[in-house]
Design goal:
Blueprint: E1 12-14, H1 26-30, E2 35-37, E3 81-85, H2 86-97, E4 114-118, E5 127-131, H3 133-148, E6 153-157, H4 165-180, E7 182-183, H5 190-193, E8 207-210, H6 215-227, E9 234-237, H7 245-250, E10 257-258, E11 262-266, E12 272-276, E13 279-280, H8 291-303, H9 307-324, H10 344-352, H11 360-382, H12 414-424, H13 428-436, H14 443-458, E14 473-474, H15 476-495, H16 516-520, H17 534-552, E15 553-554, E16 559-560, E17 562-564, E18 569-571, H18 580-584, H19 589-603, E19 604-605, E20 608-609, H20 614-617, E21 633-634, H21 636-648, H22 652-672, E22 681-682, H23 710-720, H24 725-732, H25 737-740, H26 747-752, H27 761-775
Parallel strand pairs: 1-2, 8-9, 8-10
Antiparallel strand pairs: 3-6, 4-5, 7-13, 11-12, 14-17, 15-16, 17-18, 19-20, 21-22
Length: 776
């Protein structure tokens, strides 16, 4: 009789030729028990523990390795797998390869970029070399994920280390990143969402502000506070008018989270309770619901089939407009006076078109609530004073507010405040307190912060395009967005609501057409007195298009520019947001042709579209540092808006080329820097290591990326939908746009970037690191 085999309890065996799912989410792959193979055992001790073969150091004679494959298994009947002790291998990988100590494996690390792993078929007796930054960083990521699932020992498929990087990144976004960025405001989610990295008051007590008129919600959170005393949760109810600047400033010393929409659900005990509707946050230091971030995030969610999540974010926006008067910049108390670029109508319509068709009437009622909310926001925010300029009819980013924005870094305004502090002979800190409290009056500083708040409301904080003038500008991006609002509302009323939509909330309707005389008249028609029709909204859109052509289009320069409503002239800063008119559909075919043929090349660089031209930005110096929304930085909103706009007007090849550039930049960063997905890029140097005032977000992770960054995740998923299969394969192979499209197609771009055109990714990374180090 054969001797009995002794195995640890709970062992699960993997057959050598078994074709198990490989490129799946970590919970599926690592969710089982410890794994072993049935192969013959070269060393019985390997059953109970495994020490990986450590790759020799380059300084020793033993670093000489046999040629690839000469020491491997002679025949491989199935996929190659490795037998790995998780904790020991993490230790060895970091000790050998992470030479800069940031718990990431990147091209800037100086390790040998080679490690021998024991094969599962030999129970670790034979080894195979893992080589290169991408495979080693993937190994580190997989080990971290295995540790997350409490695995001590794993059988790891080589295919997870060599996975096509496009497929891997897209899979991680869909199966992991969205989940990690999901938040919910209720008893189960408060401890995560109340954390605010921007809170610098020194008081970290969790606090939630509940809007007036929601007593059941207020009582729910009081009960949470009683049931979870360890949280020390402070529950406050806001007054009915909660966006008064003096009141909002009074909250700066006690910042808190703003309550959002909730559903009533069964509590499992025969009663009812409230449950927060989940939503996606941008990530990193932005741990709350944001306005325009959410629109772009929703586009990625729709690509990934998460329609319910996107729909819930619209529900939150409807709630915000009802209770806070606007879609807030973000759902914290210090944002109560401020909104951001408006995208609600397009967001709602895109989601509506993907809702389950099993209940048409329920879908119709949901869209009705969204359009009603958008109409209120339009009339009470965007075409109401102070945001509208009655003379031109152009709308502006011009929020109310008092004092210094509290959510910025402590030293962000030091250089602005120092001269005023010196004037009064006090420290900057003392001056800040007295200025915020109204003890010291400085009209010049009031004007500065009016424009600063406007820049933040624009979403483009900061840029030399807006410096010290943003509140006066009728920007091309805002006019395009409001034109889209008007067309969307008119279309929804005509196509979905039988050309008649009654409004349920009472508010004043803005005069039309706008004029100084009309806005000087205190009389306002009330919203509930009559039905809204499509004709009036299409008339508003047509009128706005005429004003855009009159004030913002520059025929001689073939580009749209912002218009200064105070100086009454165009601001000749060349901004890529000029292409938002294509997304909105308010450019003529001739204007589009001029934009594409004459102006697109000004913004197109190796990694996609930069925010503005280098000439418009001006010279950078110690006294005039980079701004993150200027050249040479590239952001997902600008890419997505331009891709969609070009496709809308029939310029699909241009859209595909731009999408390829941006996804190439994202993919090379993902491959070379341990899976990083940042907030923004330097698109000229193809680097996420940016030299700008806020640095970068989404890059400070340990071993494995957990979240990416909200709208960058979406840019990847949306961008892939523009690429052909051939282009997708080329991006996965990290084929440079210069190679893929041919150098002749990149001649103008190459000339424009001649002074900054290093092509080796390691050189680029090291140069960026040097810039960051010198700035520090």
């Amino acid at each position: 009789m054969a001797p009995a085999l002794n195995h640890p309890t709970g062992v699960s065996f993997i057959d050598d030729a078994e074709q198990r799912p490989v490129n799946v989410d970590a919970a599926t792959y690592y969710g089982g028990g410890e794994s072993y193979t049935r192969s013959r055992t070269y060393s019985h001790s390997h059953i109970h523990g495994y020490n990986p073969k450590r790759a020799p150091l380059f300084e020793e004679d033993s670093h000489m390795r046999a040629r690839r494959m000469s020491h491997d298994e002679k025949s491989v009947t199935g996929p190659r797998r490795f037998l790995i002790d998780v904790e020991e291998t993490i230790r060895v990988v970091l000790e050998q390869e992470d030479t800069d100590g940031d718990l990431q494996i990147s091209v800037t690390d100086a390790g040998p970029k080679m490690m021998a792993l024991g094969t599962a078929t030999s129970n670790g007796f034979k080894t195979f070399d893992i080589r290169g930054t991408y495979m080693l960083s993937n190994l580190l990521q997989e080990l971290a994920l295995a540790r997350d699932h409490n695995r001590k020992r794993i059988v790891l498929d080589e295919a997870r280390l060599t996975e096509n990087p496009v497929d891997r990144l897209s899979r991680m976004i869909k199966n992991s990143f969205w989940h990690s960025l999901t938040r919910r405001i209720d008893g189960d989610g408060l401890e995560i969402i109340t954390a605010d990295p921007k809170n610098r008051t020194g008081r970290v007590q969790p606090r939630i502000y509940v809007p007036y008129g929601e007593p059941a919600m207020a009582e729910y959170y009081r009960k949470v506070a009683r049931d979870k005393p360890h949280m020390n949760l402070d529950v406050q109810v806001l007054p009915e008018k909660n966006d008064d600047p003096h009141f909002v400033k009074s909250l700066n010393s006690k910042p808190g989270l703003l309550a959002l929409a909730m559903n009533e659900v069964d509590d499992g005990k025969g009663g009812r309770t409230l449950k927060g509707i989940p939503f996606i946050v941008p990530g990193a230091r932005f741990n709350e619901l944001y306005n325009w971030d959410s629109y772009f995030i929703s586009l990625g969610l729709l690509v990934d089939g998460q329609v319910t999540m996107a729909k819930g974010m619209v529900d939150h926006f409807i709630f915000e407009i009802k209770h806070y008067g606007k879609i807030l910049n973000g759902s914290r108390s210090y944002y109560l006076c401020r909104t951001q670029p408006p995208f609600l109508t397009d967001m709602a319509l895109q989601i509506y078109n993907q809702l389950d068709r099993s209940d048409i009437e329920e879908n119709r009622q949901w869209l009705k609530r969204a359009i009603q909310a958008a109409i209120k926001e339009y009339h009470t925010i965007w075409v109401a004073e102070p945001r509208i300029d009655p003379k031109t009819g152009l709308s502006r980013y011009r929020p109310d507010g008092l004092g210094i924005p509290p959510e910025t870094e402590a030293t962000h305004f030091t250089h602005i405040l120092e001269p005023f502090a010196a004037k009064h002979g006090i420290s900057v800190l003392e001056f800040s307190d007295k200025y915020n409290d109204g003890i010291l009056k400085e009209p010049e500083l009031d004007e500065y912060f009016l424009h600063d708040r406007s820049v933040r409301e624009s979403g483009h904080d900061t840029t030399y395009r807006f410096e010290k003038r943003c509140a006066n500008l009728g920007t091309i991006d805002l006019q395009a967005l409001l034109y889209k609002y008007e067309v969307d509302i008119g279309t929804a009323i005509r196509e979905v609501f039988d050309d008649e939509l009654y409004l349920e909330q009472d508010f004043p309707l803005a005069p039309f057409p706008p004029s100084v005389e009309a806005y000087a008249n205190p009389y306002r028609e009330r919203s509930t007195l009559r039905a809204q029709t499509s004709d009036e909204w299409f008339a508003r859109a047509e009128w706005r298009k005429d004003m855009i052509d009159k004030y913002l289009w520059n025929e001689s320069k073939n580009l749209y520019f912002d218009y200064d409503t105070v100086t009454e002239k165009q601001i000749l800063y060349e901004s890529v947001t000029a292409f938002w008119v294509l997304w909105a559909g308010c450019a003529s075919e001739e204007q589009c042709w001029k934009l594409v043929s004459q102006s697109l090349k000004k913004f197109e660089v190796l990694g996609g579209l930069v925010s503005g031209t280098e000439e418009s930005r001006g010279k950078i110096s110690l006294d005039r540092p980079n701004r993150q929304w200027d050249y040479p930085y590239a952001w997902p909103p600008h890419q997505i808006m331009t891709w969609v706009g070009l496709e809308r007007y029939g310029y699909l090849e241009d859209a595909q080329r731009l999408a390829y550039r941006f996804l190439y930049m994202m993919t090379t960063a993902f491959v070379d820097f341990n899976g990083v997905v940042p907030e923004k890029f330097d698109a000229v140097r193809l680097s996420h290591l940016v030299d700008a005032e806020y640095g970068n977000q989404g890059i400070d992770f340990k071993m494995v990326p957990r979240e990416g960054f909200g709208w960058m995740n979406s840019a990847y998923q949306v961008g892939l939908s523009f690429l052909t299969m051939h282009m997708r394969r080329a991006v996965a192979a990290c084929t440079s746009p210069e190679v893929f499209f041919g150098r002749s197609a990149n001649a103008d771009i190459a000339v424009a970037q001649a002074t900054a055109a290093a092509t080796d990714p390691l050189d680029l990374a090291m140069e960026s690191l040097s810039l960051v180090a010198s700035a520090a």
